[in-house]
Amino acid sequence: MVSSQHEAMHRIFQHDPGMFARAFRALHVPLDDPLEVALLPNDLTEIRPLERRVDTLLRFTTVAGRFLLLVEAQGDDHPDKPSAWAYYLAHAHAKYRLPVLLLVVCHDRATALWASRPMEFGRPFWPSLTMRPLVLGPHNVPVVTDPAVAAADIPLAALSAMTHVKHPSIGAILKALAAALREIDEEDAHVIAELTELGLGKSPAAETWRQLMSIDLSFFRSETSQRLRDEGRIEGRSEGVAGSILRILERRGVVVDDGVRERLTSCTDLALLERWLDRSLTVTSTAELFDAE
Questions:
Q1: Which of 146, 159, 278, 288 is deepest in the core (most CB within 10 A)?
Q2: Residues 129, 155 share a domain
Q3: Structural domain of residue 240, as residue ranges?
Q4: How far apart, in whole angstroms, are the C-alpha atoms of residue 207 and residue 200?
C-alpha cells in the first residue's frame, strides 16, 4: 500500500511545480523557473504491444561472475538509437538483475566514432544517465590478411571482413578467411561463410566473397551440405513452434510439467506441433492438448 508520506513527497510538486527549480538552485544546479507545466498521466504501461528487440542478447558466466552483453549492429549515426539502447540496458538489467554491457558493431569509421562517444540523457549541466557503449569498428578491429592469423581466430577474421568492408585490403582479408574456412568443419565453415556474406551487405566485397566461396568451398554445394541445411531449418522451425506452445500455456495459466515440456521440445513433426499450437489457445490442461493423439 502506498503511504501518505509517499504521496506527499511527489504531490507537492503538483501543487507548486516551480518549487522543483527553486530547490535545486539552492544546491547550485542552474534550473530555470518553469514557463508552463502540464500534469501528464503517470501510468507508463504500454497499452498496445511495443516491439523492442536488441539484435543479440548474451549472458556470460566468468570467474568474476555473470553479466549480460547486448550486441547491436549499427550502419549509421541514427538519432533514435541512443534512447533505444538506453531502454535495452535498463530493461535487461531490471529483468535479469545482472550487470549489462552494450556492444555496438560498426562497419564505417564515422559511425564507430559517433557510437563511441558517451551519450548523456538529461540537461547539459546535470545528465541523469550517461551511456557508454563498447564499440567495434574499423578503428579498432585488426586487418587480418594472413591466412595463419585468420585460422587462429576465424570469428575475428570474419569480423575483420565485416568491419573493413571499405578497406583497400578487403580482397586480401576475404582470401585469408576463405583459406581458413577450408581447414575447419563443414557446418561451422558454412555458418561463418553465410554470416560473413550477410555482414558484407550489398558492397562489391560481397560479390568477391561469393566468388571465393563458389571456387574454394565447393562442399557448400554438396548434397550433404544441402541436407544439413534443410534439417537445420526444420529443427529451427520445430523449436519455434514448441516454444510458442509453451509460452501460450504459461500465459493462460496451464500447468506444464517436465514430461510435457520434453514431449513438446523433442517433437520434430511440424504438422503435429501446429495442431498442438491451435489447441493450446483453448485447452485447460496439457492432457487435453494431447487427447487426440
A1: 159
A2: no
A3: 236-290
A4: 9
Q: Which of 103, 136, 169 is the last residue of a domain?
A: 136
In this predicted model, which residue has the larger pLDDT, 45 or 94?
94
Model confidence band, residue 175 (pLDDT cutoffs 50, 70, 90): very high
50: left (phi over 0), alpha (psi -120 to 50) or beta: beta
Distance CA 208, CA 200 (A): 10
Compute the residue count for the chain.
Answer: 293
Query: Is 38 a domain residue?
Result: yes
Total number of domains in the chain: 4
273: how many CB neighbours lie within 10 A of its CB? 19
Cα separation values, 240 from 51, 151, 190, 235, 288, Å: 18, 34, 22, 9, 21
d(C-alpha 11, C-alpha 7), whole Å: 6
Whether residue 180 sits in one domain with residue 251: no
231 in a structural domain:
no
Q: List, in sequence order, every residue forming a beta bridge with 126; answer none if it has no partner.
A: 123
pTM flag (> 0.85): no
In a domain, 92, yes or no: yes
Q: Let me know whether 207 and 260 are in one domain.
A: no
**Per-residue pLDDT tens over the stretch 191-224:** 788 888 888 877 888 888 888 887 655 544 444 4
Quickly tell me which residue has 498521466 as its cell.
41
pLDDT at residue 221, rounded to an integer: 45
Higher per-residue confidence, 59 vs 41:
59
In a domain, 132, yes or no: yes
Q: How far apart are CA 98 and CA 232, in angstroms?
A: 32
The answer to whether residues 36 and 10 belong to one domain is yes
Considering only residues 13 and 204, tell me which one the structure prediction assigns the higher pLDDT.
Answer: 204
Task: Please tell me the predicted confidence (pLDDT) of residue 145.
Answer: 92
